[in-house]
Amino acid sequence: MWIRPYLSRRDTLDSVDKELMLDKYLFKNFTKMSKSYFEFLVNRIGPNIQRQDTNMRNAIPVTTRLAITLRYLATGDSFKSLMYLFRMTAYSISTIVPEVCEALIEGLKEYIKMPSQATEWKRVAKNFEDRWNFPHCLGAMDGKHIRTICPPNSGTQYFNYKQFFSVVLFAVTDARYNFLYVHAEVQGRISDVGVFSHTAFGQALLNQNRDIPHCEPLPGREVSTPYVFLADDAFPLTENICKPYTVDLNIGSPKRVCNYRISRARRIVENSFGILASIFRILHTTINVEMKDVQNIVMACAYLHNFLRRNTRAQALYSPPGTFDREDIDLGTVIPGSWQADGERLTDLRVLGRNSTMRAKAIRDEFMHYFMTERGRVAWQD
Question: Which residues belong to any copy of the DDE Tnp4 domain (predicted)?
């Protein structure tokens, strides 16, 4: 059987360049992680992606399978482009990537874990209060459209308001830029509250089945107030979802101050999405695989994000100082993080108007009043 010369030389040249393995800086640029983290992943998922040699040819090594997948996620290069780098067919790569992504999700499942008890949620809230001066906050949430091709026989199910096919990546983050919850199965045509209600997290929260802390007053206040998740106008204002006001926003007004405080704490999720997509460039492309594989590819990126931020040393490699937006408190301005340097952003969910209950509005008003008190205000909010 005739085989193209560059494919027949794969075993002798080794798909993962030996020089690359010896140079830690080149290796990090190629895989977006250190060699030690790469080896950790090899040991963690190796048994699930290992294949047996046959009489016809040797199996592609676990290290090569992982390197192919990480390079695909990091660059968004097509399978045809990667076949020249790794000296194997585009078809082989197209089968390897989904398998490895699925193994990464399973192997790293403990790295994205939603709190299951009120005491765990209160630790999340304490971090938000300490780091972002926002009490009773259980997380910041948002959704982004990830481009895909049109799945067969799907009609306009995945066709969104921006006129391209997509799935929605919905996520909740903690105060430290880590994902608490990720979902990537909602069709692109579904926007705003529909996205939220199509996730297990959203259904549980809307039905009040989530084990979050009971209402209690904000610091120094007397009104019993729920714990909330922060969102933007793409989501509903509810008893447990707080988002900015849209009217009476004169400079110095309490509502404008409250909007600033909400946006300041909610910036966490925007930054998390930003660094995720800047490292894993596949999220900026049109992902040209079957829909179930799209979902696994997107989820694998999220799990890798948390894995690569698991401790201080890992964070220094994955998101060094200057990566995230930061504040100049003296000037009252935001200094953009390095993730914004290329100017590319994931597409937001569509904003639609909707009515809110009086109870939900009263809860947001209580946060507004708190931020205007001596106990709740910060010096730079004016």
Answer: 141-306
- pLDDT for res 96: 96
Q: Could you tell me which residues are beta bridge partners of residue 187?
A: 167
**Identity of the amino acid at 128:** F
The predicted model gives 368-375 an average pLDDT of: 95
Q: Detail the DSSP E strand segments found in 16-60.
A: none
Residues 202 and 285 in one domain: yes
Domain that holds residue 336: 111-381
CB 237 within 8 A of CB 356: yes
CB atoms within 10 A of CB 247: 5
In a shared domain, residues 80 and 154: no
Do 237 and 362 meet the contact criterion of CB atoms below 8 Å apart?
A: no
Q: Which residues of 55-75 are buried (b: 16+ CB within 10 A; e: fewer)?
A: eeeeebbbbbbbbbbbbbbbb
Same domain, 235 and 355: yes
For residue 325, give both structure tokens: 């937006």
Is the per-residue pLDDT at 3 higher than 60? no
Report how far residue 210's alpha carbon sits from residue 284's, in angstroms, rounded to the nearest whole number.
33
How many structural domains does the chain have?
A: 2
Residues 87-107 have a mean pLDDT of: 95
